[in-house]
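User: Modeling request: complex.
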Amino acid sequence: MSVPLIEIVRATVGLSIQDLGRTGTTAIGLSQGGAMDKLALIEAAALLGQTHPSPAIEFMGVGGSLRVLCDMTVALTGGEMNAKVSDRVLQWNATHTLNAGDIIELSAPKSGVYGYVTPHAELATPRVFDSRSSHVSAGIGHWLQIGDVINGTSAPAVRSMKIRAVDRLGGGTVRYLAGPQTDLFSDADLDRFHATPFRASHIANRRGVKVDFEGTPFTPQNAHGIVSDIIVTGDIQMTGDGEPYVLMSECQTMGGYPRIGTVILADLPVLAQAKAGTPIRFEQITLTQADTIMADPISAATLSARLSALVRDPAEISNLLSYQLISGAITGYED
Amino acid sequence: MERPCAMTPEICTLGHDALLVRFAREASEAATACVQVMLRLIEEADLPHVTEIAPALASVMLRFQGGTDVRSLLHQHLTDLTQKTDWSNVSVPAAKRRWIIPVCFDGDAAPHLAEVAQIAGKSEAAIIDDLENADVRVLALGFAPGQPYIGLLPQEWDMPRTSTLTAEVPAGALVTAVRQLVLFANPSPTGWRQIGMSAFKPFAPETDTPILLRAGDAMQFSRASANDIARLQAAGDPKGGAICQSL
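Assistant: Request completed. Predicted assembly structure:
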């Protein structure tokens, strides 16, 4: 039965419900959408013992507070936020079982950009084109606001676990494939593109992430009058000024700016989580290399080796006496 | 009508899980005709492992689930399909349905009408006449959900986008550039010129049929007054007074 699960008690624009997004909607003009850092949802699934990721509340570079309205386990993954309930600090990249009425207070991510709170629950929010993801720029769903209540069915509490998160919050080299318009760029410009140290720009949102660099623009040849063509998530688009923009979850589905290639899905979390100033480089790989990477995608199952039981540091426990310290002890009343 | 098509289709990879059959790098009647034909061929071939097929203005995208072997298999299927057709002599397939959409071309509904008329070298009345009599199709849905790219208009309509963006056109705005029309689904900044206003909502997520249009649909515009459009908008029907005829 669906019951109130979570109430938003503090929020600014940037909180939304996100899952892995949609497939098969390009022909109607709707891009994949979904979480900017889908790896964070897969890590949450591993923590919660799920095979398929559940929808999460995504925090886009901002903090907020959530009141849980029933006893519930949540997973905290993605960009690292300071999280606490009253004086109790909640370890990041871990699950925590909370009591009805607890308020989770979350800071803006201190490293990375997108933080995720995944309730161990079946949400009852609307499904549009087979996904619960908000795609605000397309008119699907909305930014969560103070007072919003998310309904659903909570699942039984699971053992508290932590996960050694996949390293992706500090930028690095992202791999991309050449595409239908790569040949609009000269070999010299492509070489320079691969050699250039980029930095993530402050111009970034769910549609795309701009990367800054020093030097002359990457201007394509013969791109004047180019016809609008299909865009896919990960495309590296050069604007009219020759500035690269990597198109992300909520990108448009068609556009006329030339694209140098497509960043592979496995590396998009690096771009999503790159705060302004984070170093980024681009490396072109072959289709064969991409196929090898994609043949063995990260899943909740493959992440299981990174899991361990979460043992809470007594120093983090504000009121030691309220805890049952020897829960496994024999009471003498057993059969 | 016959539309000569001088170009040869090329098959490109797009990301790790899509192939693109591209007929041209610039918009033309020939390329749009080829795209419509190719789209039907791919749909009718019912190819394995395909998760979606999406037409653009001069290309068709096919996304698949699978790796190297699936890509090679589909590449071969697409090669076979492209070789079956004489692309130098392709007609646009007959439309299966026609939409007649009320549009106001007057005053505030058409802030760039005079400019468009001037660039096209025609009177404003002749421009409106072109729009009312245009034999145009939905070429593709894109940019935003359900939003149609419509075309192609006569050669005089081959005008570039504006050099500076219009900060915002309202949802329902009919805008033009490069022989095409777009009917905006959402309020949006644009470099296209607004020449009309409808009450049609290309995307209505709260309804049973959230996307009303399909690539290949024939489109016609019936002249309406500003009052008509205001009344249709107030009525709240996403179709905005549009009629859909089966052909």
